[in-house]
Amino acid sequence: MCTLIISLIILGLTSLILFFTGYMRTGIHYLTRLAHQQHKQVRMSQRPKRIFLIRHGESQANVDTTLSARMADSRIELTERGQQQAIEAGEKLRSIIGKEESMYVYMSPYRRSKQTWANIKKAFLPSQILTEREDPRIREQEFGNITDLQKRPHELEDQDRLGHFFYRFSCGESGADVYDRASLFLDTLFREMDNGHHDPTQNIVIVSHGLFMRLFLMRYYRWNVEDFDGIKQFGN
Length: 236
Known about the structure:
Pfam families: His_Phos_1 (PF00300). The protein is an alpha/beta fold.
């Protein structure tokens, strides 16, 4: 009889322990999930008000497609029309941002991108520009041997056949390579946002190149390769 009573007591205590253990695990799981959700909400609240992607204005190479065979791509400048396009882009940007908001600016180190920003910023007060930073990760795709006019037709034919995302130019980059750069840049951008380096009430302006912009959007919105292939090149 005593043995039976002891067994029942042990069974009851075991059940009670298991009950509270399960309750505690459920509670810990709930608190962990709640903390994750709150952290996510905090991170989202630190995102900028807007992100603007701006392609450089018309460049010399947009007018003379053979120029890249004679000049380093990074040194190609804007045309007069490209300068005017950049001024108009600044006026358009000001009509959206206004005079009260500010911006953090990232630009490609290529000359045409820096010239584009130099003309855009004319529309703003110095106090509205919180930072200006060159970042080589947002530069133009490196086209390698496409600068050789004799090899160019074959390179472009292979690119059309194999796909603009995966095809890597000889001695250059593929779209996938630029995608990796865009991912690294975006990771840095998110990390700076999460660490409070950016005021969430302000804007981020990125002055870059057409292909980079499409791949940035692909990474940001998690598009697939087919989505990327369906996006037309942005105009100057």
